[in-house]
Design brief:
The chain has eleven helices and two strands. The chain is mainly α. The chain has one domain: Globin-like, CATH 1.10.490. Strands 1-2 form a two-stranded antiparallel ribbon. The chain is globular. The two termini are 39 Å apart. About 22% of the residues have low confidence. It binds protoporphyrin IX containing FE. This is Globin-sensor domain-containing protein. GO terms for molecular function: heme binding; oxygen binding. Pfam families: Protoglobin.
Length: 300
């Protein structure tokens, strides 16, 4: 007779529909939010911390482009729009000061600015998904094919810059630093998934039924318009933190982290938002409302 170890009385696992997470962006995001426990604490941290992230954007952009131009395989993509071709370039490699790179830096600045906007809006996640799609070489007009190894490395690099810069902020309390770093990380990991989903083959048997921009619409379509080339048949603040001396290198990389709030009054005002209580059409707006700020690890 089999032993009863009393494990059968445990909580029933939540059901996640495999097909739904492969075919519906909404369902995929809901699952990722639930798994990562992305909720009101994160939304609050992002709303109140947006100004600190915005202060970092110019430095993050410069560091990312310095990095991407450091290797021929990634630098070449700014000429050829692909990392999959190793042919010798006819022209010189671009450098940071060239107008082309300055223009591309502007794209990344816009992207990072959008990351500071409202994650309770559907459009926020659609945009992240669109950025993922854009790099996977499937768009019809001027495809951009950046292989995942570079995307993943770049995401890790961006995450590392944010962790160092936010954790070494001179005025934010440790509690707020932690909340902000956690929230930013969750968004970056979801963005990483929205890059990877266009590359991995998981769920490919549902390729015909995948949605992309409009929840519930077909993969590769924006409304009725097909956009994929390939057949889709297939308050400043707080108490001084005790770790302000951490990571001194950030101060050279991101000098603006040392500025005071008064320098950024305009930005601050501009970024002031009504926070998580703002009414939203987004199905995620009310998600995980009851989240606590207590840490899981040190709670005991
Ligand atoms: C991993 C994080 C990355 C993010 C968040 C990101 C974001 C973006 C965004 C927002 C655009 C602008 C698209 C538009 O609005 O037209 C863009 C374009 C582009 N990205 Fe990325 N990117 C990433 C990684 C990379 C990497 C690793 C490379 C190269 C190895 C790369 C190469 C390009 C190129 C060549 C363009 C096209 C620029 C143009 O059309 O002039 N990206 N990227």
């Amino acid at each position: 007779m089999p032993c009863d170890y009393g494990v059968r009385d445990g909580p029933k696992p939540k059901h996640i529909d495999r097909k739904a997470i492969h075919t519906s962006l909404e369902e995929r995001i809901k699952y990722l939010h639930d798994f990562l426990e992305f909720g009101s604490a994160d939304i609050e941290a992002l709303a109140s911390g947006a100004k600190y992230i915005k202060q970092l954007i110019p430095a993050v952009v410069n560091l990312v482009y310095k990095k991407l131009l450091q290797y021929d395989i990634t630098s070449r993509a700014f000429h050829t729009r692909t990392t999959a071709c190793e042919d010798e370039l006819e022209e010189d490699f671009l450098h940071e000061e060239t107008p082309q790179i300055q223009r591309r830096k502007m794209f990344l600045r816009w992207y990072l600015t959008r990351l500071c906007q409202d994650p309770t809006s559907i459009d926020f996640w659609r945009y992240l998904n669109k950025v993922g799609l854009m790099h996977c070489g499937q768009e019809r007009m001027a495809p951009l094919n950046i292989e995942y190894v570079h995307i993943n490395a770049c995401m890790g690099y961006i995450q590392d810059i944010f962790i160092e810069a936010l954790m070494s902020h001179p005025h934010l309390s440790l509690r707020r630093k932690i909340a902000l770093v956690r929230a930013v990380n969750k968004i970056l990991w979801i963005q990483n998934d929205l890059f990877a989903k266009w590359r991995v083959r998981d769920g490919e048997e549902y390729a015909d039924e995948m949605s992309i921009y409009s929840f519930g619409s077909r993969e590769g379509y924006l409304g009725d318009k097909k956009i994929l080339g390939s057949s889709s048949g297939s308050s400043d603040d707080d108490d001084r933190s005790s770790i302000t001396s951490v990571a001194p290198s950030t101060q050279s990389a991101a000098p603006s982290t040392n500025t005071t709030d008064t320098t950024h009054t305009a930005q601050t005002t501009q970024s002031a938002r009504s926070g998580p209580t703002k009414s939203s059409a987004c199905p995620f707006a009310e998600f995980s409302k009851a989240q606590s700020m207590e840490t899981k690890i040190w709670a005991e």
